[in-house]
Task: structure prediction
Amino acid sequence: MASFRAWLQLTRAHTAPLEMLISLMGAALGAGGLLSPALAHFTLLGFLYHLTGYGQNSVEDFVRGYDRRDPHKAHHPLQRGAMTVEEARGGVKVLFAGTLFYALYLSHLRPLPLLLLLLVLISGLIYNVKGKSIHFKFLPIALAHSTLFPFAYFSSGGPVGGETLHIMLLGYGFLILQITYQILIEGDIKDLQVKEASLLKRMGVRLKGGVLKVPLRVQLMGLSLKASSLLLALLIWHLLEDSLSALPLLLLFSSLALLFHFRLLKNGPFDHEGALKDMALEEVSSTFLLLSALSPLYHPTLGPLLALLLVLLSLSYFAIMNRFLWGTTLTPKV
Result:
């Protein structure tokens, strides 16, 4: 029987705060702040969504041979024999059923949240089952992850009109761009040595003899995605903020996101472990950027401090879970 640690490794539980924050931010925007009791439910939904989606992804990638051929994933639970495929599939099915029923409960069976939930399910399944064989695999997973935000917004009572809706749509756009960046840029670079469909390979990105070659057009594409998401975050802050209290956090996380972007896409010697660390830090910096942009709605004066508290809690979880699962602090072995 597989250990509890093996199950957490299969579901890649160390990065769960990313989806937890997406759901939390959507619900906070819909409910009008961080004081609504419903936010705990949506945070838990984000956690369950993460475990389910990444658990299914781990199983499907192993069964189809992609992860079995990847030497960087030889320590994962299925690869090292810590659990059988049948065990893993059974566990993922239980998670899927539980998460689906919980999401239906939180939606109150309203038509719009149900449609968004259907989009999450269809997009996630397309990515997990077919993602490795299609060049534009970033599209379904970007829709799946980011649509958790409007689902939580409408399920928690968010209005269907007015400025709050406009802010939600801007946040939704930010997340689509950010997750597209994660899969298209970070994911393809991480898996350059794996035999799977890759748009970056098609555009000329190469890794030979430990040296990464990134054509200018790919660098410009990556920078365009990153800059567009940063501009959306600043626009959200501009619409919400009537003071400069959140500006230091915005500048900090914008700078960090750009720093790790340039480190990832530079030509020259490629260090896989170092790249994984940069990817992890870029992802959390970008998520924290949206969290900071939305912070004025958490509290009129203490919003940025509450955002910073969520940042510290998320980083603490990430570091502790990484140490428990992989024996590292900031570099997840995925």
Summary: Residues 162-190 form the longest helix (29 residues). The radius of gyration is 19 Å. The first strand starts at residue 206 and ends at 208.
